[in-house]
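Lab notes, practical 5.
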Amino acid sequence: MLNCFIHNSSYVDLPCDIGKDTKIWHFSHIMKNVKIGENCNIGQNVFVASDVKIGNNVKIQNNVSIYKGVELKDGVFCGPSCVFTNVINPRSEVSRKSEYAETIVGRGTSIGANATIVCPCKIGCYAFIGAGAVVKGDVPDYAIMVGVPAKRRGWMSKHGDTLLFKNNVAKCPSSGLVYVVKGDKCQEMSDE
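Output from the prediction step:
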């Protein structure tokens, strides 16, 4: 925690592991036993519950709560006020702490403002969750998910471009990487 920035209005409960060059901004609360990687940006009014793992180069915008059971891999972007759940059937009068469900957000995924991620689920690498979408199940790599409930509306490259397929093959216009679709899966191919 020596090489990170923590705004003086924020609270970090110890022990915690916060990586080099990470910034935690105004009015945020990081609970104990959290692991945050290097070069992360934690926005204003963010709550991170105990035992959460956050990878390197993660950007979490304002007003996001990340509850126990959620893991964000490297390069994840969480838009303002996006929501994660960790209990399937919450009741104020019934303790469900032993029932926290797991949500894993894959490397490079972007979650839009006000999107809701309902547990349990696994969001694949480089997926794109549109603003206001409600995700209620697993999401494949590179999928563009929009709507309530969220449905796949296409595929997106690592670079963030919508992929246009011809004969199940697409080339990212920005990076030149080639992608192929087989059934409900999209994967990057070598550009040879």
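Observations recorded by the TA: The chain has one domain: 5-163. The CA atoms of residues 11 and 29 lie 5 Å apart.
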